[in-house]
Each structure stands twice: as structure tokens, then as C-alpha cells.
Amino acid sequence: MTTVDPVFAQWLMDQARWHVAEDATLKTRWGETAETSERVTTIATKADAEAEAARQLDFMGGPLVEDEHLLKGQWAGFLGRVITLTIDKLGYDAGIDVFVIGVEDDYAAGTSRVRVLRRL
Hints:
Layout: H1 6-13, H2 24-30, H3 46-59, E1 64-72, E2 82-85, E3 96-106, E4 111-119
Antiparallel strand pairs: 1-4, 2-3, 3-4
């Protein structure tokens, strides 16, 4: 009987499949302060997961600026993700890819204070 590598077996039983991508330049630049981006999506193939990881690493490669927005709804679920944000302020009219680094949901008001990183 053929045995299965225990790590591979655990990977098969997980609720999601994981792909980890790192960029040596970014790791050197950010060090211990680097954010980890984690997404659970409907991506089904390794190639698509690698393409998404490359998109996120490419986003983090340039000079970044931090913005803060007061938005309607609850945004905690987007923490640590790259999303496209479209609003009528600060040049976001056409939509800008941002990395969500902080969220404070105000359930009573139905709003969230959302901090994001965007390319300069």
C-alpha cells in the first residue's frame, strides 16, 4: 500500500488550499513590520493562486501612502486583503487597488473607519 505524505494529507483535508508567496526585496524592505495577506476565494488552480499572489506582491512593490476613509457598512472582513475601492474622493473615482490595514466597525452608526495602503 502506498503511503501519503502527512503534510500533503493535511493539505488535502483543509477547508481551503494555501499558496504562500514571498518577495525577497519586499521582505528586506519591510522586515518584521510586513503585513501578511490572506484570502479565501473560489480560486481553484495553483496557477490562478500564483497569479493572485503575484498581483498582491506587485501591488506592495511600489511607494505606498496610507489613507483613511469613513465608509458605510462593516469592513472587518476585508482586513489584510487587496480590494478595489471606488469612492468620489481623493482620486478614487475610477477605482484604486488598496490593501486594507485597519478597520474599526461602528455597528451603531452602520459605518467603518477603514485605513488602507495605496500606490503613490
